[in-house]
Amino acid sequence: MIRLHQTRPVCGGLLPSIWGGALFAALILMCGCAVGPRYSRPSAPTPTDYKETPPNWKTAQPADQMLKGKWWEVYQDPQLNALEDKIDISNQSLKAAQAQFAQARATVRYNRADYYPTITAGVSAARERFSENRPLAVGGVTTTNDLVIPVDMSWEPDVWGRVRHTVEASRADAQATLADLESVSLSVHAELAVDYFSARELDAEAQLLDSTVASYVKQLELTENRYKGGVASQVDVAQAQTQLEQARAQAIDVREQRTQFEHAIAVLIGEPASNFTLPVAVLNATPPVIPPGLPSELLERRPDIAANERLMAAANAQIGIAKAAYFPTFSLSPSAGFESTSIANWLSSPSAFAIVGASAVVTAFDAGRRRAASDQARAGYDQAVANYQQDVLTAYQEVEDNLAALRLLEDESNTQTAAVAAAEHSLALSNNRYRGGVTTYLEVITAQTTALSNERTAVQISGRRMVDSVLLIKALGGGWNAASLSTVKMESRTPIPPGQ
What we know:
CATH architecture of the largest domain: Up-down Bundle
Largest sheet: 5 strands, antiparallel
Structural class: alpha+beta
Order of helices and strands: EHHHEEEHHHHEEEEHH
Number of domains: 2
Number of helices: 9
Radius of gyration: 38 Å
Helix content: 55-70%
CATH class of the largest domain: Mainly Alpha
């Protein structure tokens, strides 16, 4: 280590020493410059348009139809809206993410403090007795008081930008944490909507099965009457009974699945599952038109992509921090105060003292430690770039997946509606043929099974369309925009607003 140090007691020279230290600091600041690469966002592959966008969605949409903060309101379901509003208040995952963001903002303020000197003050009093047999002892008082009021300052000027890059890195980390908070918010809101529509789809299935059970009960009564009249066999009665019990079992299974979604919703809104009940309501909605926007806008609308972009900026700043280690470290350490042996003249002018010190330290040999730190920082940046570009590709995939799912499910729904109508017509014909004694009850059972299967499939497709519309909104980033990250400034000291 090479060290330069100067201390100058102020006996008759306090002001010159202070001005000399100030001049030294000014020269350092004027000559200082930050080292390290400038940050610019790496390019990412961006398509000109979504391949799976249906033609009727490419038309311009009015501004009030664009996705906004409370994106779930596009479904116009008051009960869903009420449940979604509870998430911002009571969801524990969201609270944890808010606390993590608060920590990140505090870290920014903590690192900013290195721009300024640290000043300490105190007071000490000691009663000292010196040995009369100590080396080079001279006659005189061997017991004395030492009363000191010191004010010390230490400051490391940010000559090479180490502090500057540290603040940049922590600020970028805080912005990434805010984007992570928005990702958590988007995920839990979307998860609630998915669970909600899944529960509604199961309600519709349960209603269908209940009506089917009622129909099968009447069918069993008819078969029993025909058996008593000698028209039907006991096999027909057994088959009708089997069909009825199977439908009842399916209804019970659907309700069991529905309770799982009800419990999941309770956890999302921060309530014990035992205290929450979701009223039964049949799903009879269709997905709203969701404008996907331009692919180039997706990079600004996805909070997870914004978080990875900010992590790249933080990794870039780490390179500057590693480079600053190659240059000397300057520091100023002035000290002043009062020292006396008596309280009577403790605070008098002759008891004042002052010291102005400056030092410069450079590492001459570290066996490659700084080079390793620099290589580590560059590799970390390369990793952040690769993660960012991979997340961009995944984001476009998720949008395309859900656009394709909605397009194809709409076609499937129309086809399935026709299949349900054909199955119901076939069941009506089979019942008529059975009543007329033209066919066996096996044909009726086959038609009943086919009709119920097609009706359940139609209901399930309706539920999948609603779920996939939620997943599309999630893939598009909800109503979020990366411009909100600019609110995280270096000097931010405001409390976190509730629900953010």
